[in-house]
Amino acid sequence: MKKLRKIKRIFWLLLGGTSMGMGAVGVVLPILPTVPLLLLALFCFARSSAKVENWFRSTKLHKQHLEPFMEKKVMTKRAKITVMASMTVFMGAGFWFMDSVPAGRVILGAVWLFHMIYFTKGVGTVPAQEV
Fold it and tell me: Which residues cross the membrane (predicted)?
C-alpha cells in the first residue's frame, strides 16, 4: 500500500514536471498552449505533494500566466490567441484523421466551438501591462 502511494506520487510529479516544462516552452513557442499545460502542472503537483504545489505557486511562471486566469478569469490577447490557435490546430488534426467516424467529427466540432465561445466570451481580455 505504501509503495503504491509512492509510485502514484512519483507519477504525478513526473507528469507535472513534464507539463510545466512544455508550458514554459509554450511561453516563447506559440504552438504550445501555455495556460492549459500550466493548469495541468498545478493539478499534478497538487496530487504529488503540498510542498511541490506550494513551490510551483511561488514561481514566476505561475504568477505571470496562471494567477490572472485563476483569480479573475482574464488573459492577455496574445495568450488567448495562442490557446485558440493551438486548440484549432490540434483539434483540426483530430478532425482530419476522423474521416471515417462522423460522430467523432461532430463531437470534436462541438468541443472546438465550445472552446472558442468560452475563450472569446467567458474569459476577459486585459493588456499585457495589467498582468
Answer: 12-32, 79-97, 103-120
